[in-house]
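Changelog-adjacent note: as of this version, every example in the card shows the full chain rather than a window. The one below runs 280 residues end to end.
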Amino acid sequence: MWGRTLWTAVVLGGLVGCSEDTGAANDGGMASDAAAPAGEDAAPAPGAVDVTLGIVNHSLNRLAAGTEARPELTGVEVGVLAVDAVLADVDAAPLAVEPLATPCGAPCVHALGAVPSPGGGLLSLVRGEGWMPTWTGIGTAVGGRIDDGRGFALSAAAVDDVLAPLLGLSGDELRARGVVFGLVYSGASADGSGQPLIGATVTASDPDFTVVYPDGRFARLIDATAMQGVFVAVPSAAAGIGTVSFEVTPPAGTDLRWDATAAAIRAPGRVYFHLMYPVE
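Full-length structure tokens:
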């Protein structure tokens, strides 16, 4: 299973789920209905998938820039990758990729249109000069269409100046190892946005991974997920591409479960955003 996106509506990069002790937003959250792209009712060509992505301008970009506003998504490209292709070759060519028009607006929604698909799992791709390549599972097409895919824009400065120091690594070393950026949800809010789970811990299927929990301001490490439901998993050394899954232990009194077999991808030079919703 390559990412279960849950958003009937989208607040991309909105300040959802913040509290007094957090300086970062619930960046996985979605609210506010996005306008459907023109021609949405047209059937995609055989062997193609119509893909629309919501692009999250992550709050770490603002923290890295030291500004109240998040930086403009200048020079960003968005696209789609085939899971099987990247597992065989980390540098596999995208099925489709194109520049993100700016200003993108809020919510930031980009319609890629008909994307040739070989079948199987798909990933969103966000990259660009000054931006860390990120992948996010967007599942497989149902009826030849993916309307609810997400991609995360994460600046290179966010990796070098926020994540790497938090983990006690240089930016170069962290990039070489690759990062899984996890978001644990307890479900959806009334507006359709993801509801982060506070107080969860996760265990990686691969003991080579270290899992840490940043506080809401990404200033220090704590013992469990904070207001964003974030965990960060990093292998002990640089290696080739592979997969890893995570078992969630919720806080006491939470009667939910998550798919412990849902695979995230570890890849050198990439950040993989792993979105974990409870299973029904």
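Structural remarks: DSSP finds four helices and 17 strands in the chain.
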